[in-house]
Automatic annotation (TrEMBL):
The lineage of its organism: Archaea, Methanobacteriati, Methanobacteriota, Stenosarchaea group, Halobacteria. Residues 40-142 form the Polymerase nucleotidyl transferase domain. It comes from Haloferax prahovense (strain DSM 18310 / JCM 13924 / TL6). It catalyses: a tRNA with a 3' CCA end + 2 CTP + ATP = a tRNA with a 3' CCACCA end + 3 diphosphate; a tRNA precursor + 2 CTP + ATP = a tRNA with a 3' CCA end + 3 diphosphate. InterPro entries: CAA_C, CCA-adding_arc, CCA_tRNA_nucleotrans_2, NT_2-5OAS_ClassI-CCAase, NT_sf, NuclTrfase_I-like_C, Polymerase_NTP_transf_dom, tRNA_NucTransf2. Its cofactor is Mg(2+). A single active site specifically recognizes both ATP and CTP and is responsible for their addition. Catalyzes the addition and repair of the essential 3'-terminal CCA sequence in tRNAs without using a nucleic acid template. Adds these three nucleotides in the order of C, C, and A to the tRNA nucleotide-73, using CTP and ATP as substrates and producing inorganic pyrophosphate. tRNA 3'-terminal CCA addition is required both for tRNA processing and repair. Also involved in tRNA surveillance by mediating tandem CCA addition to generate a CCACCA at the 3' terminus of unstable tRNAs. While stable tRNAs receive only 3'-terminal CCA, unstable tRNAs are marked with CCACCA and rapidly degraded. Keywords: ATP-binding, Magnesium, Metal-binding, Nucleotide-binding, Nucleotidyltransferase, RNA repair, RNA-binding, Transferase, tRNA processing. Mg(2+) binds at D68, D70, D119. Pfam families: CAA_C, NTP_transf_2, tRNA_NucTransf2. This is CCA-adding enzyme. PROSITE patterns: 25A_SYNTH_3. ATP binds at S56, R59, H142, K162, Y171.
Amino acid sequence: MTNSDLDAVVAAVRERIDPDEAERRALAEAASALESRVHDALADLPVDADALQVGSTARGTWLSGDRDIDLFVRFPADLDREELETYGLEVGHAVLPDGHEEYAEHPYVKGDYDGFDVDLVPCYDVPTASDIRSAVDRTPFHNAYLTERLDDDLAADVRVFKRFLKGIGAYGSDLRTEGFSGYLAELLVVEHGGFEPLLRAAADWSPQVDFDPENHGTRRFSDPLVVIDPTDHERNVAAVCSAENVARLQHYARDLLAEPRESLFFRPDPPALDADGVRGHLDRRGTTAVAVVFDCPDLVDDQLYPQLRKSLTGVADGLDRRGFDVFRRATFAADADEGDAVLFAELSVAERPAVERHEGPPVHVRRHAEGFYGAYEDGDDHYGPFLDGDRYVVEREREFTSATDFLESDALFDVALGKHVKSTLGEDGYDVLVGDDVAALAESFGAELGRYFAPRP
């Protein structure tokens, strides 16, 4: 592989992702018109404030087809929080009369203008990022920092890196994806001086990977990838990035360098599966699939997915402790406001004998050994105690002989479940699907099952 091979691929990718002049002009005109509307709305308020365009469209790192404009309205730092929210929403609705309110750390208005998706977010105009009163107050500092450092060539490389991250499934700092944010992608490209140097570095990363662009000297984070926010030394920009996504970037960096090709930037998902496809995979694999299916809690993704993952781990641990040997697991949730959520697992063992082996301490550990022997000395509901080597052993009745029995029992509520998942299961109930019955999930989750049964890095 020569540099020219990768250069040719990058050039071809840029042909597909770089906004053309018409797109740039349309965005600039829309942003200018929106800023003018903001200033008109602010003129009617008893405070001094201004508007600032931020994000990728402000820095030239947006991809063709992206239609997002982020406008921040900066209010005085000494303004009461309630007034900030009131004034922010007033301006938002004036600028976007058909918009709707959403909530991050505080409410903001989201709407459409001339085909662009617009977020109009109030924030505090603080002197430094260390003085923030809300998380969004950092964003203008991010914008200023990168605007000073991104020239046209680096901005182009950022676009290529973002498209690469999208292609490999590692782009997005939401808690569903746990990947690379746009800001993190920009910082990494700036830090390494371009897309190719970043690829070559990432191919050799050995976590913990640590970058400190402004030499703040902070080394207290335990995440696999640490990028100290150059505007706020207390923050790791990569905190949400999972170890799996760091490894995913490493894998595909090596893959692209070894064999440059456009397809890595635009990989299609595996085909969705129908019920027959699911049954075919299970038959081929010889595993037993189980699924706990319930009404999806009414939560935003950043609240929902941590709870689903916690619940999946809890259920899997409960199955493993009872000898059902979880082979692989996954969780799915409907994208719509109403739909199901699923805790899915494949088991190597679905049924166990009526008795289980329970080992006690070695006989020479006298106090514990005597306590164990005394607990099982009498009674006819177990075999033993007897000696196996130097230990006491009993064979006692197993609580659950099938995974289904466990999943349908109250013992399911003793495992570590997410708060809202637990309440949903307890109040609304749930279904347990086993074996070929899980094929019914293909109707709602065919795409997710397609990805599950065609795994890749």
